Amino acid sequence: MTVIQAMIQQAWETRREFRPEIWFSVPGARHYDNPYYSNRPFSFANLSVTGKACACRCAHCEGALLQTMIGATSPQAMRRVVDKLLEKGCRGILVSGGGNSDGEVPLQPFVEAMGYAKQMGLKVLAHGGLIRRETAAMLKKAGVDQVLMDVIGNEGTIREVCHLNRKPDDYLQSMLYCRDAGLNIAPHIVIGLHFGQIRGERRALEMIKQADPETIVLVILTPACGTAMAGIQPPSIDEAARIMGTARILNPATPITLGCARPPGKYKRRAEIIAIDCGVNGIAYPDETTVDYARSKGLKTVFSEECCSLLGRRWSNYSGR
């Protein structure tokens, strides 16, 4: 047995501490339709408080992710968007946007509008980049269900990919500000963020462990057309497996999900299979073959139209973990 095979086996054995379910997240922000499940448009929606604008212009995205989000660039506009989404049967929103030169999404002016969304019965998630203490307190007061944030463990990656004069400890501090405010957090790690190389992912996992998150979300670098990384090779499946397996072993009691982003095609299918072997508790937008494989491993498959980061509360009262 190779070292990587031994790690995967250990990760799978660690996962056995959870009940034998796997949650497949298929929110309506993206169409999903196969013999196993068909989602509804607008069941969960992504809003950008900056529209398509982003000052960071990170090398792997350059604002591309904002193109698919619903613009809500003023509190009044956000309220109008919320009202329209409610008419369409929406159950939850993710509020995010482009980052400024400090790596922060300007969420503070929108907290009352987010509170309005909560009052209207929506689940509200905020993806705010780096979070200040005062921002965390305001999000808690608004009743935000969860805060999402990317966590980077390598200073060179922060500088060269995200174009920020920040350090890994700034990401840890953001998580701790949120925890101190009583917020649930779902930190994200982009595997291979440094131009396809593994740098700092282990440190990011160690920082996340200190923050006691509700859920850990792992995604894999997906080179986007028209960006500085358009021709970059994503990390190998074995490299991705090492990070996924390490995440499971370091966090035996924390739900882990493979999030939305990963390269398409054969890579996507292989990454999802290895993610199951590494003991993840959930996968966003799985391939049909992934559902089949999960069932062959003895897992009960459950579909949900909520964001995959909300997976953690599924096990929050489960004494068997």
Could you describe the 3D structure shown?
With 321 residues, the chain is an alpha/beta fold. It has a single domain, classed as Alpha-Beta Barrel (TIM Barrel). Helices cover 34% and strands 16% of the residues. The protein has helices at residues 3-15, 75-87, 111-119, 133-142, 155-160, 168-180, 201-211, 237-250, 266-277, 288-296; strands spanning 21-25, 44-48, 70-71, 92-96, 123-127, 146-150, 185-191, 216-220, 256-258, 282-284, 300-304. Helix 8 links the parallel strand 8 (216-220) and strand 9 (256-258). Helix 2 packs parallel to helix 3 (111-119) and helix 7 (201-211) packs parallel to helix 8. The longest helix is centred in the C-terminal third of the chain and has 14 residues, at 237-250. Residues 317-321 have low confidence and may be disordered.
